[in-house]
Write a structure and sequence with these properties.
By secondary structure, the protein is an alpha+beta fold. The chain is 31% helix and 21% strand. It is built from 5 helices and 8 strands, in the order H-H-E-H-E-E-H-E-E-E-E-H-E. It has helices spanning 2-22, 49-59, 71-81, 125-128, 179-200, and strands spanning 64-66, 95-102, 110-117, 132-135, 139-142, 146-153, 162-169, 213-216. An 8-stranded antiparallel β-sheet has the order 1-2-3-7-6-5-4-8, covered by helices on one side. It is globular and about 45 Å long. Residues 1-31 have low confidence and may be disordered.
């Protein structure tokens, strides 16, 4: 009897170890999904279909890890800027509103940063040749690795109107000829900007709905 009991106990332990090594399942034989969905990351800025599709395609993943996003810090930086006009010499460091990594693997991540700006700077002719411009806010443009979007935030007194700079850093290794990646990045910048604009109470921000339309493709 003792030998039989010992054999049964050993079998139970082995079964438990095998289950642990397999990663477990959701109770119906399917493995539990790892990471966050596009709708769950960074307060749901990418929950709408166009932004969710852009995030999934841009990162090559349907699940994500949060790499230390700081949405509250980013919003507080912008709120502070509405209390008084920016000094000409003052250039605060932007804050990562959202910083994502693929749920699995070692691929590059994607981040969206916000900061106050003096104005939309425009593009010099050489820079304009190498990026795609889009219709959203005051100015929006993107390469295959970096996108920028500027929008005005008009507020009720006594708050001061500000210009908000949105910067999206995409994964590395994307060919600069990939025009679809440019649109994905600016779509994500636009979606995050719309969320921030709403939280700040901005009026007449001029931000596009869904996917911003390109207005000028690169010529180089």
């Amino acid at each position: 009897m003792r030998a039989a009991a010992a054999a049964i106990g050993a079998a139970v332990v082995v079964a438990a170890l095998l289950t642990g090594c397999s990663g477990g399942d959701g109770g119906d034989g399917t493995e539990e999904a790892k990471g966050l969905t596009a709708a769950e990351v960074c307060r749901g800025f990418a929950k709408d279909a166009p932004a969710a599709a852009a995030l999934t395609a841009a990162m090559g993943s349907e699940r994500f890890r949060d790499g230390m996003s700081e949405p509250d810090k980013a919003l507080n930086l912008l709120k502070d800027a509405t209390e008084a006009p920016l000094a000409d010499s003052y250039r605060p460091q932007p804050v990562k509103y959202c910083w994502l990594l693929p749920a699995e693997g070692e691929k590059d991540g994607l981040s969206v940063e916000f900061g106050p700006a003096q104005k939309a700077p425009g593009l010099n002719p050489e820079h304009a040749k190498s990026v795609t411009s889009y219709a959203s806010g005051l100015q929006a443009y993107s390469s295959s690795g970096l996108g920028r979007l500027y929008f005005s935030c008009s507020l009720k007194e006594p708050a001061h109107d500000i210009v908000v700079e949105t910067v999206v850093h995409g994964p590395g290794g994307i060919p600069d000829t990939d025009l679809e990646q440019r649109t994905r990045l600016i779509t994500l910048a636009n979606a995050a900007a719309r969320q921030v604009s709403e939280k700040l109470g901005c009026e007449k921000d001029g931000l596009a709905t869904g996917v911003p339309s390109p207005t000028a493709h690169p010529t180089s």
